[in-house]
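Lab meeting minutes (informal)
Scribe: AK
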Amino acid sequence: MKKIIAIDIGNTETTVGIGNKDGWDSYRFTTRDANTPDELLALFNSTFNLIDDKRNELAGSIVCSVVPQVTNNMVQAIEKYLDFPPIVVGPGIKTGLKVNIDNPKELGPDRIANSVAGYKIAESDVVIVDLGTATTFDIVNNKKEYLGGAIAPGIKISLDALTSKTASLKSVELDLPKKVVGKNTYEAIQSGLIFGHASMIDSMIEKLLQELGTKPKIILTGGLSPIIQPALNLNAQYEENLTLVGLEEIFNLNN
């Protein structure tokens, strides 16, 4: 089966993957809106190091982006790399989902890709929790209808706000604390960030389940999921490359 290049441009990080349903080689880079198409092209060449024969075996590429100023440069770089343009997730692209919200155009492409992948994995009601720059909750029912969701500040945003607005509190490593009760300021901040965020997720899921009246599968994704997952009370499945899985599904629907 041919592979594709799938790219998820987030506010903080850009994930670049090459693969298909059989597996992904994925890489994370800091999102920089100053990178030119040629700089991005050099990044592809150094990262993938594909010989021409292998490059010609790729079925194509797809991009989802929440940073519009980066999207065009990325599209130009991929077009140079593969000699044909990528699919860009946006209005007019087939996703297989019916989006039942007030303004479907408001729904971020990354959340669309996550929802497509979440339903593909669950094949029924599903809640996807993405722990990135923001922590997002997306709900899809067993009829493949996107019902809506919620958005909360992410852990790193909370940490940045805490340290920038207080004179005496310093940044900490985002690691799972051994105990809830911190014995010093460093441990106390870690506890509040990690256990506090986990408690928020547990409570949000509980409220979502009450409102939905169903028992959906819970799927976690995003770079901070491995840190938060052990602190959760709920039973959730972690999918590292969920967005890439959704992008491949959307790619196939549009080819």
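Next up, CB showed the second protein from the same session:
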Amino acid sequence: MRYGRLHGLETPVSRIILGCGGLRRDNMDKATTLLDAFRAAGGTTLDTAFNYGRDGASERAVGQWIAERSARSDVVIITKGAHHDAEWRPRVRPDVITQELTLSLERLGTDHIDLYLLHRDDPQAPVGPIIDCLNQHLTDGRIRAFGGSNWSPRRIEEANAYAASHGLQGMVASSPNLALAVATDPPHMGHATVSGDPEALQWYERTRFPLLAWSAQAQGFFSERGNPENPDARRHFRRYDDPRNWERWRRVQDLASRRDRTPTQIALAWVLDLPLEVYAVVGPGTVPHLEDALAAQEVTLTPTELDWLNLQETR
């Protein structure tokens, strides 16, 4: 397992982060099996959110596993809050942050969150009250560090400029979407993606700002489920149904065959080998899927291969 460090956290952060959105306390056998396997492989970092599952089912499952395994000191808990409401209206406000953070701590059975991410942004909201609120929770020990999920580089810079000018802690990490496949539909519902966005990727490369890539496997687009000749696959992956993505798919299959690797490993290695301070969030449904994803760390892609997979080079 590869690791990195985030400012404010003592425990190393595994480069592959286990997305826990599909875990439920009413199916703890599955949750326990996946979490145990991830921990046994050296995984340290778990990603969940206030709104994953009914009544916080994901946070509750993670909390139960941590308690049963006495694993709190071994893991980095990432959770998120202040998601938009059911009508997709922004809720990035101090009162919502405080209310949801308090309940997340209770569900997870812990006195602090290692990395707290704001699940969405409201570009119209001033950053000052948000940063002030999060710093109060830092001071009170409820969180160790914070960042933004689906925040743009511009808003991160705005938030951190406010923090610096007021002697406060700023954001230490960002979690946008990043994968080799580029969605054909525009960002919606508060999502932020840097896939296919050279300007944003250059910002992350220049600043070395830690990037936690959600949907790093493009929802399994490069797995055995994806095939441009399969009508069911084209329907299932309709947001990636584009000639350029299918050419990326073909090149991944080609390189996987020549490297004796799975397509999933090649596509995930593409994310991990970018010249960024990058971590990949994966959401496997089974232990074999988890093992397949973890093996991507054994693959090293050259800059030429990275460009070729992303249609930037020909050969």
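CB comment: Strands lie at 3-4, 13-14, 16-19, 45-47, 76-81, 113-118, 143-149, 174-175, 211-213, 278-282.
No objections, moving on.
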